Inverse folding.
């Protein structure tokens, strides 16, 4: 964690033009005696503006700002940073997008206010904007329009754990329009960036744009959402040097390793900007160089920039002093040297380059705890002699081949070189040199020369149902320090392999393993995982983004790179024997599915519910005189709706995708195993909810009444009871009251109240059903016990012939069928209310600013559904009508549309459910009634009535 030395102080800065945004604010961070300077509005450091994320506080800047302030004090306040933070009222902008436009407008005012704080420097003041979570998208938004008064003051944007190009979940259309607007604006005003290769003739090309992700521990914003096509550089915290760790969503703001690296990056760009004032370097090229230095590892061998940089490094000459150095050449191919007391003289280890021998092709070298310089690895032609040793008077640096190896205790550097390729580029070279300067600290280095074909292991991703563990390396040699594992057929983001590394035996050292995962089609997602002082560890391997489909590429080189398999480099501790096993990880695969596809469940729940409702309405044939509604639980447990939804959506997705005029199908991009899992999970949710609701209706109806009475909290108990009875007797008036709540407060609040009222009505219907059931049961028992006496009484005093008419079930007091009809509608109301809970939370949080939520994405669907409920509650539904077949067909259509078009755009489900309610209401109002048939009583009663008529005559 990041610790402090003094209490944090947040000084509010008045913002001009802030009359419309009284709930927002701008703060400057300070501690101790620095607070007085801030209160006097005296700023002369390089400005950094922090934007919090969804539900985030402006105080989250504390860790970044506190470390930077301590660094400034250590520098005698010469070069320092001024941190500012935006207070966005801790609004949940990640799930409610109605305030994103206001937040963007306020942040633009904050940028202009910070520029004014620097006085005469205002014209040349440029700041970095750091955005966490949704704050990263807001940082993009303030420059999206390309306005000069904002763009010229923003030197760079750094997003941390932010959903940049896609939101985590779309619960309202405001989010969708916000992201679309920024996407279009950046396409117009900025080139698609690939490092610094993009052109600089557009307004936003001069802004350095960096995206950073948290990795596997961030369960809110997963890896694939943190990168952007416009980013100059993308990095993951587990691949950033000196960090090497995955961080969760909030930890990114206070993780000490990450905070230190970020501040070092900002400090590396500070330059004097006038007398006693500082700013950031203007040139984007220099900014990008510092970003690469602090935030990424060296590039891969095949990268064009890496090749050119290595050519430049090779031109850098290193002069050696043999009188101060020990030159040692060892003919062993693999060995490790440890010096626990340090080195009295500089040691230069010579590794011979042997061409045309496969066993001498690759060199893996690693140095531990040595004072590293840019000259520790080099190549030369050893044609000179000093004493009894061959040596090089000068050599050429290979610094760009070196990589820092993750370690929490020591400085570890390593390199992996293709000696044959090195010989082809430099025919005169004979040796590679490892130079370790004199030191009093314990130091260690290891050399491993090997044939890469013997160290490469090829595996294939197991089938989705195969979870067996397989051994791929039984007993590695103690001298083996490197293995490469290639994984084929791993293309989907939910596929996960668990790689088990176990140190069987170690020669006096503790087992340390480092694993590097490289996914060719996802730039910036290389991942390091390391474990120290452990004999066994497990590394989970998965692709952060889906592998692109094979198609004709415009750049064949880039295309071939993207089609390569995933490879995993495993670095062992010399002196240890290792055992490697692998297998598919069910636990992590399910966790990845939940993390990336949880937002698909509402659409599938709605589809399955509508198909079950359709089955309930289709249990009566058109020629029957009476209409009967089936049971919801029985309809849900039938395999038909599930199979129809699975097969139908898959076929429709492939068929409709052939037509360009039809919008893109969302379900087509979801893997079939994931779709099956989502379907089953949705079905389980509905079954559990159905059983829970029946239990609540059967056993908790009276308890629910008491809770509602307490919620009403009227001071007079009689009035509370009267109000509750009004719910049963005057549902239309209650519906009108709910509409008034929607118009004056929030649509989501009215939907939650509607769900409570609906539950009361269902529980009342169940009570009536129980009363009738008990009454009819008692009458039948009495008829069996006293049937003969009743018949005698009927013979003596019975009136003329008795008849009864068979009427629709709901008109005969069959409340159970009424409950079966309204139960799916109640679930629709609950689902609609749950989807609009973010609106309710936002309304409650801002209630003291405004009684009505503006804008309210839940208002229109709420009004439509409440108007329909007013009719359905007032009518004696379900009625014995024609047209239930057409209504059932409409339910099927809406079910398929929900799965095809509402999985990602979840807010569309509001309108799907509103359409269902409108269709059901119109059908109950305008559909013609079925014919009614009179039925006489059974034959015994018929004969008895005839006898009574004769007696009467």
């Amino acid at each position: 964690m990041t610790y402090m030395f003094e209490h944090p102080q947040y000084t509010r800065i008045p913002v001009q033009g802030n009359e419309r945004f009284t709930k927002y604010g701008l703060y400057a961070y300070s501690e101790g005696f620095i607070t007085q300077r801030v209160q006097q509005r005296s700023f002369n450091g390089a400005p950094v503006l922090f934007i919090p994320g969804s539900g985030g506080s402006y105080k989250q800047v504390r860790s970044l700002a506190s470390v930077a302030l301590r660094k400034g004090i250590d520098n005698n306040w010469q070069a320092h940073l001024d941190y500012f933070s935006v207070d966005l009222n801790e609004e949940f902008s990640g799930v409610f997008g109605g305030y994103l436009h206001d937040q963007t407008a306020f942040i633009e005012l904050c940028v202009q206010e910070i520029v004014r704080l620097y006085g005469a420097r205002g014209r040349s003041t440029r700041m970095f904007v750091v955005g966490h979570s949704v704050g990263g998208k807001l940082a993009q938004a303030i420059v999206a329009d390309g306005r000069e008064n904002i763009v010229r003051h923003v030197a760079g944007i750094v997003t941390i754990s932010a959903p940049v190009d896609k939101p985590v979940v779309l619960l309202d259309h405001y989010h969708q329009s916000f992201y679309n607007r920024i996407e279009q604006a950046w396409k117009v005003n900025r080139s698609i960036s690939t490092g610094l290769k993009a052109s600089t003739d557009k307004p936003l090309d001069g802004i350095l744009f960096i995206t950073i992700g948290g990795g596997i521990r961030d369960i809110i914003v997963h890896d694939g959402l943190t990168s952007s096509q416009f980013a100059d550089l993308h990095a993951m915290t587990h691949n950033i040097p000196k960090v090497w760790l995955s961080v969760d969503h909030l930890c990114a703001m206070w993780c000490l390793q990450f905070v230190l690296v970020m501040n070092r990056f900002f400090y590396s760009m500070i330059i004097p900007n006038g007398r006693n004032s500082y700013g950031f370097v203007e040139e984007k090229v220099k900014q990008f160089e510092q970003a690469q230095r602090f935030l990424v590892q060296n590039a891969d061998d095949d990268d064009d920039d890496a090749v050119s940089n290595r050519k430049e490094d090779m031109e850098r000459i290193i002069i050696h002093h043999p009188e101060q150095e020990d030159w040692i050449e060892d003919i062993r191919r693999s060995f490790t040297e440890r010096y626990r007391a340090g080195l009295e003289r500089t040691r230069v280890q010579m590794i011979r380059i042997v061409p045309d021998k496969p066993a001498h092709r690759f060199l893996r070298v690693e140095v531990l705890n040595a004072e590293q310089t840019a000259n520790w690895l080099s190549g030369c032609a050893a044609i000179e002699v000093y004493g009894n040793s061959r040596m090089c008077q000068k050599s050429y640096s290979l610094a760009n081949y070196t990589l820092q190896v993750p370690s929490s205790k020591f400085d570890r550097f390593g390199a992996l070189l293709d000696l044959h390729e090195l010989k082809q580029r430099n025919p005169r070279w004979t040796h590679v040199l490892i130079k370790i300067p004199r030191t009093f600290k314990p130091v260690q280095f290891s050399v491993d020369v090997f044939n890469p074909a013997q160290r490469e292991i090829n595996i294939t991703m197991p089938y989705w149902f195969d979870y067996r563990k397989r051994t791929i390396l039984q007993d590695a040699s103690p001298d083996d320090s490197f293995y490469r594992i290639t994984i084929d057929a791993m293309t989907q983001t939910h596929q996960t392999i668990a790689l088990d590394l176990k140190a069987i035996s170690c020669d006096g050292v503790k087992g340390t393993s480092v694993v590097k995962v490289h996914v060719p089609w996802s730039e910036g997602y290389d991942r390091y995982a390391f474990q120290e002082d452990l004999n066994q560890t497990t590394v989970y391997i998965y692709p952060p983004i889906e592998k692109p489909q094979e198609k004709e590429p415009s750049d064949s080189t880039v295309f071939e790179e993207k089609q390569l398999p995933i490879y995993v480099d495993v670095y062992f501790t010399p002196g240890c024997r290792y055992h490697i096993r692998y297998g598919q990880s069910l636990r992590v695969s399910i966790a990845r599915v939940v993390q990336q596809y949880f937002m698909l469940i509402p659409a599938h729940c709605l589809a399955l519910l509508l198909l079950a409702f359709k089955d309930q309405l289709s249990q009566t044939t058109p020629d029957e005189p009476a209409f009967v509604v089936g049971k919801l639980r029985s309809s849900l447990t039938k395999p038909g709706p599930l199979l129809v939804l699975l097969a139908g959506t898959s076929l429709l997705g492939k068929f409709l995708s052939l037509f360009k005029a039809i919008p893109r199908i969302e379900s087509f991009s979801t893997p079939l195993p994931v779709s099956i899992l989502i379907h089953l999970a949705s079905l389980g949710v509905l079954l559990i909810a159905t059983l829970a609701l029946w239990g609540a209706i059967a056993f908790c109806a009276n308890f629910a009444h008491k809770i509602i009475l307490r919620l009403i909290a009227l001071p007079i108990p009689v009035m509370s009871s009267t109000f509750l009875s009004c719910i049963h007797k005057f549902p239309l008036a209650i519906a009108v009251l709910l509409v008034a709540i929607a118009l004056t407060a929030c649509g989501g609040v009215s939907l939650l109240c509607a769900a409570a009222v609906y539950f009361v009505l269902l529980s009342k219907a169940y009570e009536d059903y129980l009363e009738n059931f008990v009454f009819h049961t008692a009458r039948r028992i009495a008829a069996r016990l006293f049937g003969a006496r009743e018949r005698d009484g009927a013979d003596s005093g019975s009136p003329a012939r008795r008849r009864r008419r068979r009427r629709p079930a709901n008109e005969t007091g069959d409340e159970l069928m009424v409950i079966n009809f309204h139960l799916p509608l109640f679930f629709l109301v609950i689902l609609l209310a749950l989807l609009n809970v973010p609106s309710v939370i936002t309304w409650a949080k801002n209630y003291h600013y405004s009684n009505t939520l503006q804008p309210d994405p839940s208002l229109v669907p709420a009004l439509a559904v409440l108007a329909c409920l007013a009719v359905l509650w007032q009518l004696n539904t379900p009625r014995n009508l024609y047209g239930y077949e057409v209504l059932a067909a409409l339910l099927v259509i809406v079910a398929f549309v929900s799965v095809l078009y509402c999985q990602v755009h979840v807010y569309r489900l509001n309108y799907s459910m509103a359409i269902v309610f409108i269709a059901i209401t119109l059908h109950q109002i305008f559909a013609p009634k079925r014919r009614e048939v009179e039925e006489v009583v059974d034959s015994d009663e018929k004969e008895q009535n005839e006898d009574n008529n004769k007696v009467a005559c």
